[in-house]
Amino acid sequence: MTRMPRPYTHPSPHTAIVPPYLLARIANADDPRFSAAAAAARRSLRRDVPLREWRAAGDLPSFMAPERPARDERPAAAPGTAPQPDRRISDAEGADTLPGRLVRREGQPDTGDQAVDEAYDGLGDTFELFGRVFARDSIDDAGMPLEATVHYGDRYDNAFWDGERMVFGDGDGEVFRGFTSSLSVIGHEVAHGVTERTARLRYQGQSGALNEHISDVFGALVEQYSMGQDAESATWLIGEGVFTDAVEGRAIRSMKEPGTAYDDDVLGVDPQPGHFDRYIETDDDNGGVHLNSGIPNRAFALAAIELGGFAWEVAGRVWYEVLTSGRLTPETGFREFAREIVRAADERYGRTSREARAIAGGWASVGLEVPPSS
Q1: Which CATH number do you get for residue 283?
Q2: Which residue of the set 290, 306, 340, 355 is catalytic?
Q3: In terms of residue numbers, what domain contains 307?
Q4: Which are the contacts of 5, defined by CB distance < 8 A and separation ≥ 6?
């Protein structure tokens, strides 16, 4: 294990797609080409401070209360009908106030606002994956409305789940584009809501890295499902397309090859480890949640590629079963999670099956070998 130096001051408490260490690199950039990006990154980091202080004081805002019931204002579906999404897209119009002005509801036509329509379509694609593949009816499995806010903040360099809605910034235009442009980002944020309603993995240390990992898994699966990609042809990139052409980088993260998503003069080199031997001990980034998620991410990608076909059919199903099994605790760590995944694969497919061997092999490849369940 390695220990990461402390390159920035304020870890982000949001379940956000862009890690605070990446924003800190941009905030400290002295290249005049990225002056607007540096200012935007500083604003984005400062915006997280009040929520961090709430957590430190134990006085959580209402949307983070652990047993808050889901709001559901939809009329009850007729018996025998398939669940349908209930999407509600609001526009913050550059302000920091949520939810903003409601601009598109379920069934309404395109607005012509790219961010609004991308968010609407992306939430629909995410609902479809969870509904058709995993028989889940929205975030809470009870038809919870899918609410999103776009155009949040002044060139806000992030997207996050706040406990009630997905929130998307427009990016600074120099390093980041708008975050609704990536379907994996949209799926990632919805999956944070699913994790909150199921395993409730604490957003700190290994359990926090698993929280991020699960969101990356389902973010990737949403994109692959929408595009009809099999595991071999998929990019396994999270946030592909959110960087501008000025950045030497493919995406925010690579699940298949952690540590290779970007290598840029301003951003630095992607620091994600892909093996448990290189697990990063740090007090920042909520204990390295965005860093160490690369380890289970690689295990999933390698297992899915070894299995072939569509990743949501076997690996995705096993991960979803474990997430919703009730066997995880908020403090679950990597080894416990790997054991539960292998156990679920053994139970579903048989201990000596090709499926179970591939999934166990994925974990072994990242230094988390799990003996077959008895």
Answers
A1: 1.10.390.10
A2: 290
A3: 9-61+83-365
A4: none
